[in-house]
Structure to design on (314 residues):
């Protein structure tokens, strides 16, 4: 379905920042309660979920389904209930006594009675020699987007969490060789993924090792890794480097709002998903709890139901 555009909209009941699983679920619940609901999405519909090649742990969708496909389904479902989705970034939130005004990337404003922050997280960058120079020239933070460039070539995946291992298995489908460089001797990823990776003949895990440098001539041709136990370094020939060393919260729009964050920059809420600022709620990865699609959708539902109660009271 084509996006419902709402370029001229200046008012809404409930505004939702972010179109990942938390934001989309909040939108579905909010619209079904009868509230005029506007979602603002950044560059990617579906947030982090959309960057995941295979999802097989979301109940009712045995899959494997791609994150992009699930995101599109959620979007279509939200729009079918009248949610208006706009591709504009929210730059700041002006906190009025009864209303919140969102200032959008093009300078336009929309005033709403409650706001749900479901802005999620973005990839944590790894600061290594060559990291900036070779970004887009072999270094990537998105295997779904860039994996095809490395068909029949060797690649490295940095990290040992669910994201790194999911992407390593995905890349092994097309690349000739996948090295997982992990700083410990045990993967953080869930057992079923870790076993699949370790058993894959194309994947080799370089244990207890960190990336020190990315090298190349115009494009990446090798990496230097260091064993943290022996301090030995070695050079591995690869053409691609996929970095999955966790995420950082997308909280830039909160500056000046007074919304309380924890020490890692994630939003603090109570059980009803309300923040310390009346009328501002949060849901999903931006809360920094269990970062799963299932928990994000649950957050989104709770946030929308309570934002709805709040709107009815004011
Ligand atoms: P994560 O679970 O935080 O894992 C990050 C990985 O990067 C860890 O293995 C960590 O090592 C490593 N790391 C962190 N900083 C590093 C550094 N400076 N140098 C080298 N390695 C470093 O993050 P994620 O995998 O991006 O996943 C984010 C969230 O989404 C998680 O909650 C995850 O469970 C969820 N997710 C779930 C699925 C799924 O359920 N299938 C798929 C994707 C993501 P240590 O292990 O030593 O800490």
């Amino acid at each position: 379905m084509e996006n419902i555009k709402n370029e001229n909209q200046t008012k809404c009941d409930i505004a939702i920042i972010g179109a990942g699983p938390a934001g989309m679920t909040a939108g579905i619940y909010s619209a079904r309660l009868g509230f005029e609901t506007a979602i603002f999405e950044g560059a990617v519909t579906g947030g982090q979920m959309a960057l995941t090649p295979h999802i097989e742990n979301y109940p009712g969708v045995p899959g494997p389904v791609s994150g992009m496909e699930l995101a599109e389904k959620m979007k279509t479902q939200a729009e079918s209930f009248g949610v208006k989705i706009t591709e504009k970034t929210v730059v700041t939130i002006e906190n009025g006594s009864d209303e919140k005004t969102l200032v959008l990337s093009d300078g336009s404003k929309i005033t709403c009675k409650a706001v749900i922050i479901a802005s999620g997280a973005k990839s944590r960058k790894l600061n290594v020699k060559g990291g900036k120079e070779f970004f887009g020239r072999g270094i990537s933070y998105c295997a779904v987007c860039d994996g095809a460039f490395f068909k029949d070539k060797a690649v490295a995946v940095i990290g040992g969490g669910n994201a790194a291992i999911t992407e390593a298995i995905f890349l092994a489908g097309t690349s000739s060789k996948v090295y997982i460089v992990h700083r410990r001797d045990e993967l953080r990823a869930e057992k079923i993924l870790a076993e699949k990776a370790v058993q894959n003949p194309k994947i080799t895990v370089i244990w207890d090792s960190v990336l020190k440098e990315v090298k190349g001539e115009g494009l990446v041709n090798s990496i230097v890794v260091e064993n943290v136990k022996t301090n030995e370094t070695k050079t591995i020939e690869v053409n691609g480097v996929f970095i999955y060393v966790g995420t950082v919260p997308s909280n830039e729009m909160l500056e000046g709002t007074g919304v309380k964050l924890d020490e890692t920059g994630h939003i603090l809420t109570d059980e009803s998903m309300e923040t310390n600022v009346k009328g501002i709620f949060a849901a999903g990865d931006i809360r920094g709890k269990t970062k799963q699609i299932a928990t994000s959708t649950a957050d989104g539902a709770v946030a929308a139901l309570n934002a709805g109660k709040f709107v009815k009271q004011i």
